[in-house]
Amino acid sequence: MTNKVEADGKEPMNEQAVANIYGSMRSDLNQLYSKITELEMEVSEHSLVMGAIQPLDPSRRCYRMIGGVLVERTINEVLPAVQRNKEGLEEVIFRLNEALERKKKEIIDFEAKYKIKIRKSDGEVKDDAGRKEGSAQGVLVGPAGGEE
């Protein structure tokens, strides 16, 4: 790796700068994963609500939280709003997934350019691009230990 800065000033100056940029890129990737997971959970909650209120009488009253205020509405008014919110969340998830793919490609290109390899704790060296997509996630094994 060279320690020279190109004329355009966009190349990192040293190994520490490369490591900092790489760490920042990995952090951005993890933030995207977290946000996608959070929004997918919200979509799931919207689906549960829709499934629970669809079979009910449309004129039946229900309550909805809007901006921290609980308001009384009818199912007929709430159901379309919940559906629109769910569709909006799905669109945001789609765009975040596109951004995630772009970020992954950017990281892979950066790793190839600077010959970055991830060193495992047991001394094994492996290209980060060869990792499975969900390997940064934890795995729960066995029972959770108790009911909530």
TrEMBL record:
Keyword Electron transport: no
Keywords: Chaperone, Coiled coil
GO cellular component: prefoldin complex
Keyword match Cell wall biogenesis/degradation: no
Recorded GO MF terms: unfolded protein binding
Biological-process GO terms, alphabetical: protein folding; response to cold
Disordered: annotated segments: 123-148
Annotated Pfam families: Prefoldin_2
Bias type Basic and acidic residues, positions: 123-134
Coiled coil region boundaries: 86-113
Protein family per UniProt: Belongs to the prefoldin subunit beta family.
Protein name: Prefoldin subunit 2
Species of provenance: Kingdonia uniflora
